[in-house]
Structure formats: C-alpha cells, structure tokens
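FORM 7B: Structural annotation worksheet

SECTION A. Query
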Amino acid sequence: MEEEIIRYENVSVVFDGTIIIEHFSLPVCKGDKVILRGPSGSGKSTLLKMAQGYARPDTGTVSYRMHVVDADTAWTIRQETAYISQDTDIGEGIVRELIAGVFAYTVNRTIPYETSLNEYLTLFSLDETILDKDFRSLSGGEKQRIVIIISLLLERTIFFLDEITAALDSRMKQQVADYFLSHEDWTVLAISHDDAWYREGVRIIPVGGK
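SECTION B. Predicted structure
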C-alpha cells in the first residue's frame, strides 16, 4: 500500500461570505505528481498553504502523514517539505550571502549545500557570477531560479509548487518541470498553467470553476 503523504477531506473555505472551496477531497501519496488547475481566485494557493499549516479550512480537515495539520504538527511539516511560490521576495543582499543565511539556521546547518550549488546553477543555466550580485538587481526569471535552487538544496522530497515557472522562458519552463517530475520518489503538489507540467503520469485536479 502506498504511503499517504497529504489528504484533503471534505475541505471548504468561505471568504467574505462567498464559498471559495467547497467539499474538496484529495489523497496524495508518496511519489504522486499532482497539478491543481482552476481559475484565478478558486483557492488553489490556499490549498497548498493548508498543507503546511499557513491556512486552515473552515470545515473539513487536512492531514499530513495521517496527522491533522495544526499548530502542533506544522513545524515538523515545514521541516520535511518545501513550499516554492512565484513570489520571489525572499530578502535582499548578495545572492551568496542570502543562500548562506538560509543554511545558517540550526535546522539546516548539517546540509552540505555548497557541494550541490554549482551543479544546480549549471542545470538551470545560471553563471556562477550571479552569486556575487545583489539579489534585487536580478531579473524575475533569475530570482525565480535562485528560489528554486535554494529549495532544492534543502534536500526535501515533498514539494508544494505555486506557479514556479510563470516567469521563465519556454525552454526553462520545460527544464524545471522535467527536473521535478523525473524524480519518482518525490511527491509534488503544484499549481501551474504552463503546458510543460501537463504530461502522462501527472494527475490533473480541477479546483473551482467548470
């Protein structure tokens, strides 16, 4: 039997008197690749945030490894998973120092990120000189790739991805999607309208709309 990682059970969300999500249920098992698809405002990002305890359903439950996501379990979940957003406002300063700061936290100090950093830069078509640039001076696509690289360096195997290829060109969209989808043991729950993610073996789950 496949290990269940996340389960949404009869989840509903109401905002300002309007039902945004209604009776949404979804099991996600280890190794699953799932894309949430729906119109803007349908609650897709809220569903991702629920899985890490950043948002709560008005009714229903969200579980992680068979435990309800709440204040007591959220910290453990965030240590085991990676949430990557299209919002690249993660800080300021020199890129090298920004990355080092992430791995200065006690929970990340034992991760030998330096050994993989240059490999990821090459994989996502970034020159090593970008490490000595001010993060704020980078293009939107460069910032997005740096954010993706930081998340990969954390060595997680469960990913929540929110439109992470929106700012990338078509070739890089394909490169990023290929990388995440090619790891059979990785569990990926993503939001994307980019065709690069839509392929055989990926489950497409409608959220809201028709």
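SECTION C. Observations
The chain has a mean pLDDT of 94. Residues 140-153 form the longest helix (14 residues).

SECTION D. Sign-off
Analyst initials: ____
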